[in-house]
Write a structure and sequence with these properties.
- By secondary structure, the protein is mostly helical.
- The protein has two domains: about 30 residues; about 35 residues.
- It is about 80% helix and about 0% strand.
- The chain has two helices and no strands.
- The longest helix is centred in the C-terminal third of the chain and has 28 residues.
- It is extended.
- The N and C termini lie close together (about 10 Å).
- About 0% of the residues are buried.
- This is Spore coat protein W.
- It comes from Aneurinibacillus aneurinilyticus.
């Protein structure tokens, strides 16, 4: 997979995740607060980072098996 394809895939994944989250929030009438405490922001960032690492590891494994 070329860098351009990886960037496209990354952008597509982010857009899809944004759409799903927005849809879930809207269906459940969730109001997004703008005043999230810093500690909670740190936890969310850590969770997102962990998920990204798992996705990257999965993609690396898939690429290795497809060679």
């Amino acid at each position: 997979m070329s860098k351009g394809e990886e960037n496209d895939f990354s952008h597509l994944s982010k857009s899809l995740a944004d759409l799903i989250v927005s849809d879930v929030f809207e269906r459940n009438k969730v109001v997004v607060r703008k005043d999230i405490p810093e500690e909670q922001k740190q936890k969310i960032r850590k969770l997102a980072q962990d998920l990204q690492e798992q996705v990257d590891a999965f993609l690396q494994k898939e690429r290795g098996e497809n060679l």
